[in-house]
Design goal:
By secondary structure, the protein is mainly alpha-helical. 70% of the residues lie in helices and 6% in strands. It folds into two domains: 11-180, Preprotein translocase SecY subunit, CATH 1.10.3370.10; 209-423, Orthogonal Bundle (Preprotein translocase SecY subunit), CATH 1.10.3370. The chain has helices spanning 2-13, 15-34, 44-52, 58-66, 70-73, 82-97, 99-105, 109-139, 151-178, 183-210, 213-235, 272-287, 296-302, 308-329, 332-341, 353-386, 391-394, 399-429, and strands at 237-244, 247-249, 252-255, 258-265, 344-345. Strand 2 and strand 3 (252-255) form a beta hairpin. Helix 14 (308-329) runs antiparallel to helix 16 (353-386). It is globular and about 80 Å long.
């Protein structure tokens, strides 16, 4: 505990880091306040009554989790960040098939700005399509629509929903540029964490009512174990040894030979396969959400996110998408060409084509256990629910929510650590006469 307090003091001492953290917390607070501002004219009391009567299906629960409750509150940020995530995924997929986007991806900073602009435009289009569906399928179905909901009300409410989602995107981009961590991911994480205290309190109250507090302790231990395993896999890498040849120009060595390694992540695709798979699995849930028990096999088995068939198909899709997305992220031929140009090589493997085949086979072997682990993480909430954990608390035992939380927290901590490391390096340079830095008392006269 003493070390933790000392780390907080060290963080607070660094002025730039302190300002970035305060700005990040302020923007997150604005985002959270926005999730409680109800759309004009919507009957929130009716929404709350409908939810208390059990009128919220599994799809609504899932969407509410990622919006921090904004979806079920019918707030101005009900659509949240997910339209921007969908637009980003579409742009990544188009980068594989459209030569113009591939060219932009290879143009560096200018190309990245163009892609970001196109992503924002696509986000507005997606929001414009989702907003009427949200009002019709959720707000109107709960009986929360205003009595005088005319065409003008629909138009203004759609504009408010689009503006709220784009404002959330703007907040995320400001956090990325001026704050700490990846802003978009942080906002999603905050939305997920906002539901955790209520879910835990509900689970604790249920265990206390049953007189079984050992159950809650066991659940916490299992939850921490799953988090630990997730951290190990997220940070796990396969270190491929590399040798760098000595380069000699004239009579002297320009670059000494050295041994290094090429890091290949066990889970190179991150959380994207689960997002892809869940996006596909929501389609039958949306189409047959109101079919009830008479809706056939799909309505009965794919309308329950804790059901066997839903999780079985979800696991298969995650394994498939993990290979697919890893193929997008890692290009063995490009890696082999870069190694050849830099004079590096894998011991025992010829540079060029043979190196590309070696890296490709290695990535394929590593991806298999990584994909199976992602599939297991995705279905752990269903296992926890079948074991007696409440539906709200079981959602945090795995799936997209856990991976996003772990990944974002690790990334943010790494950025804070890098600031502290830079500050430590600066302190080591104090009192020295390094060019570009003056010691205390040194004048500028030269």
């Amino acid at each position: 505990m003493k070390g933790f307090i000392q780390n907080l003091k060290n963080i607070w001492k660094v002025e730039e880091l302190r300002k970035r953290i305060l700005l990040t917390l302020g923007l997150i607070l604005i985002y959270r306040l926005g999730s409680f501002i109800i759309l004009p004219g919507v009957n929130f009391n009716q929404l709350a009554a409908s939810q208390s009567e059990g009128g919220q299906n599994m799809l609504e629960t899932l969407l509410s989790l990622f919006s921090g409750g904004g979806f079920t509150n019918a707030s101005i940020m009900a659509l949240g960040i997910m339209p921007y995530i969908s637009a980003s995924i579409i742009m990544q997929l188009l980068g594989m098939a459209v030569p113009a986007i591939q060219k932009m991806q290879n143009e560096g900073e200018s190309g990245r700005k163009q892609i970001n602009n196109w992503t924002r435009i696509l986000t507005i289009i997606i929001c414009t399509l989702q907003a009427p569906s949200y009002l019709a399928l959720y707000v109107e179905s709960k009986g929360a629509m205003p009595v005088d909901a005319n065409t003008f009300w629909w138009i203004q409410t759609i504009i408010v929903l689009v503006a709220g989602s784009m404002f959330a995107v703007w907040l995320g981009e400001r956090i990325t540029d001026k704050g700490i961590g990846n802003g978009i991911s942080l906002l999603i994480t905050v939305g997920i964490l906002a539901s955790l205290p209520g879910a835990f309190i509900g689970e604790f109250s249920m265990a206390a009512a049953e007189g079984n507090l050992i159950k809650i302790i066991l659940e916490i231990v299992i939850f921490m174990t799953v988090v630990l395993a997730t951290i190990l896999i997220v940070q796990g890498v396969r270190k491929v040894p590399l040798n760098t040849a000595k380069r000699i120009v004239g009579a002297r060595a320009v670059q000494q030979g050295a041994r290094n390694y090429l890091p290949i992540k066990v889970n190179a695709s991150g959380v994207m396969p689960i997002i892809f798979a869940q996006a596909i699995m929501t389609v039958p849930m949306m189409l047959f959400a109101n079919s009830g028990e008479d809706g056939g096999f799909i309505a009965r088995n794919f309308g329950d996110i804790f059901g066997f068939w839903y999780n079985f198909v979800l696991g298969i899709l995650i394994i498939v998408f993990t290979y697919f997305y890893t193929a997008i992220m890692i290009n063995p031929r490009k890696i082999a060409d870069d190694l050849k140009r830099s004079g590096a090589f894998i011991p025992g493997v010829r540079p060029g084509e043979e190196t590309a085949h070696y890296i490709d086979s290695l990535v394929s072997r590593i991806t298999l256990p990584g994909s199976i682990f992602l599939a297991i993480i995705a279905i752990i909430p269903a296992i926890a629910n079948k074991a007696g954990v409440s539906a709200g608390f079981a959602m945090f035992f795995g799936g997209t929510s856990l991976l996003i939380m772990v990944g974002v927290v690790l990334d943010t901590l790494q950025q804070i650590e890098s600031y502290l490391l830079n500050r430590h390096m600066d302190s080591l340079m104090e009192g020295t006469k390094v060019r570009g830095r003056r010691t205390q008392g040194e004048t500028s006269g030269m």
